[in-house]
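Supplementary notes for students who missed Thursday's class. We covered one full example, reproduced here. Read the sequence, then the structure, then the short commentary at the end.
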Amino acid sequence: MELNSFLQSLERADALEQIQDLTVQLRDMFAVDHAVYHWLSADGEQYGFGTYDPVWVQRYVEKDYMRIDPVIIGCFQRFHPVDWRQLDWSSRAAKAFRKDAIAHGVGNQGLSFPIRGPNGQLALLTASHCTDDRSWDRFVHANQREWILIAHFLNLKALLLAAQRRPAPTRQLSPREVEALTFLGMGHGRAKVAELLEISEHTLRAYIESARFKLGALNTTHAVARAVSEGLIVVGGAARNASGGWPGRETD
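Structure (token representation):
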């Protein structure tokens, strides 16, 4: 019944910051010392919510512990739940980190659930506690399945809330990049486009490559298509050939 109530609270959440309250609920529901949700994106963006002492959170950031944290390293390497006892704590840095974490109340036992999301996102849901091995084994055996379920639903909600609050990225093309892609989309070859813009083909290539990079395009045709779909350039319908593709299709 408690799990259903928690999932209902999760469903009602309408702001990313509410995940903090949910981690407190999770900690209390399962009677552990801490529950923590940590989001890592491929571009370095992070969110962290949980019940660790703020002093420890600040210390973790200041000492850049993420570089040596066996839990983070272990979760990057695994897809299944990670019991902290299975990790490599043998290095001097890892031992010092563990001692520091325990001193700040993190607990000597932990179970982390890695979740992979879109675009290289990695999220972790972690339960930690101070107890003996036998008691922790009982906790893991009794609750692992529910935490796996919670981890995935919590991450889905976090992704949704993050997407709602983040403005859509704008990709600013320079005027020359817009002109180059527009003329290419109209079916002109590179030599003709360079002539129309009164620049060398070498300079034209630089503009095209820059536009491709900004648009994340695989080739020139892909760049034109993305620019059109995102409203960055306007190409008349006459530019398309009978098969519906772009005339003068290029593959570089």
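Commentary. Confidence is low (pLDDT under 50) at residues 237-252. The longest strand covers residues 109-116. If anything here is unclear, bring it to office hours.
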